[in-house]
Amino acid sequence: MLKLFNSLTRKTEEFNPKDANNVKMYSCGPTVYYYPHIGNFRAYLFMDNIRRVLKYNGFTLNGVMNITDVGHLTSDADEGDDKMLVASKRENKSPWEIAKFYTDVFMADAKKLNIDLPEHIVPATSVIEEMIEFVKVLIEKGFAYETSKGIYFDIAKFHAYGALSGMDIREKLAGARIEVDDEKRSPYDFVLWVKAPKEHIMQWPSPWGMGYPGWHIECSVIGDKYLGEYIDIHTGGVDHKPVHHENEIAQSNCHYGHQVVSNWMHLEFLQIDGGKMSKSLGNLYTIADLEKKGYAAEDFRFFYFMAHYSKQQNFTFDALDMAKNTLKSIKNLVKEHKTGSAKVDTAGYQQEFLDSINDDLNMPKAIACVQKMLKEERSADVYNAFIKFNQVLGLNLDEEEIPAEIKELAEKRWQAKQNKDWATADAVRAELDAKGYVVKDSKEGYEILKK
Ligand code: AMP
Ligand code: ZN
């Protein structure tokens, strides 16, 4: 029996999809205005984790993830500039070029992390027509109204507003700052469609003139288009709970007149050295940054398994080293078991592994079970059980040998370094880099890694 924690009911519940064996799952995707960092990827490893555990339990999946390429302002609550336009100015490119570039970066990193991507990956700009139709319905049903600036959702009409994050909207309203936009009925009414000034680059025709969508509407509309009016699981980071997901619930439930998402799942944040990740602190790492420091993307994938998703996870390079070393020893043991001849009954381990992942994705416990099993006498039975578990872990077991040519280059570089011939050492490093390899030096020598 698979049990998952539902943020909406605040309970760990037995998971049963609405439609027999087929799970409909929606995941809030990236805003493609900058390089995704490892915190963002914790969110997508979480999505991968759920998908693989569902499949391990025999469910089939219809998964959807949006790509935000319009409408996400610098504040989640409708303030500031569109992040895409900020990036467009910063890089002197069109917002469409920005979206293409960072979507490609995201997909390449996701591939390196072996993330099991959803069946549908949908850019917000591909559903503008559907968004307009959806907003029209909200207006017709009396849940939205027009001002000189755009179309707003009237939160007073949705009594359950705030239920997900446990906020009392009446209390919040009483303490609200002076409203800057006196056309809005309540300060917490949020924008569905923005009337665009002439100079705004991204805009589309609508019944309300030229404009562009608010950020939240894309998730309701993409969910509706690809999954329909009942969604079993919706994922995202905890930061999305109080604004983005409250707004999404309000839009979707009022559109249909019933609850659309039954199970909300939220991932706690990745912290860096015990604090927030930020560009100004210089501690915002990407997968490429980790690679430059000699780690493989998979080391970060394994690092994800070391904490439960509902707890903050603290990133340090010591912890990443630990993940990397544990991963390496696991892989070495798996190789030894492959040719082992002992007979081992793995039924107990299989049950323990299943119980751990089905206990609201308890990956630290599942990994402990794997490590215990690998201590058994070398046995193909253990190897076979591990291969099964690896459907959830998604580790790459058939790494090719480092080619001789690469080994020679690495050695040449090492010798050049010993001779303090830095120019040659740098040139060879660049050559290795172009061929897809990095070398990591230590006191004892060097290690060659595939990028
Ligand atoms: P964004 O691209 O800003 O829309 O964020 C993409 C995803 O990354 C969202 O689900 C966020 O909740 C998540 N996210 C952002 N920062 C972190 C972090 N430090 N740790 C975990 N998830 C994060
Ligand atoms: Zn979303």
CATH class of the largest domain: Alpha Beta
CATH topology descriptor of the largest domain: Rossmann fold
Q: How would you classify the helix and strand content by structural class?
A: alpha/beta
Strand order of the largest sheet: 5-4-3-10-11
Task: Give start-end ranges of low-pLDDT stretches.
Answer: none
Give the overall average pLDDT: 93
Termini separation comes to 39 Å
Description:
The protein is of the alpha/beta class and 451 residues long. The protein has three domains: 17-267, 3-Layer(aba) Sandwich (Rossmann fold), CATH 3.40.50; 291-393, Four Helix Bundle (Hemerythrin (Met), subunit A) (Up-down Bundle), CATH 1.20.120; 404-450. Helix content is 43%, strand content 16%. It contains 15 helices and 15 strands. It has helices at 38-56, 83-91, 95-112, 128-140, 169-174, 217-227, 241-256, 287-292, 297-304, 317-338, 347-358, 363-374, 380-393, 404-418, 422-434, and strands at residues 3-6, 11-14, 22-27, 60-67, 120-123, 144-146, 150-153, 190-195, 211-213, 231-237, 261-267, 270-272, 313-315, 437-441, 446-450. Strands 5-4-3-10-11 form a five-stranded parallel beta sheet, sandwiched between helices. A four-stranded antiparallel beta sheet has the order 6-7-8-9. Strand 6 (144-146) and strand 7 form a beta hairpin. It is globular and about 70 Å long. It starts with a strand and ends with a strand. The mean pLDDT is 93. The structure holds adenosine monophosphate (AMP) and zinc ion. Adenosine monophosphate binds at residues 28, 30-31, 39-40, 42-43, 236-237, 239-240, 267, 269-270, 277.
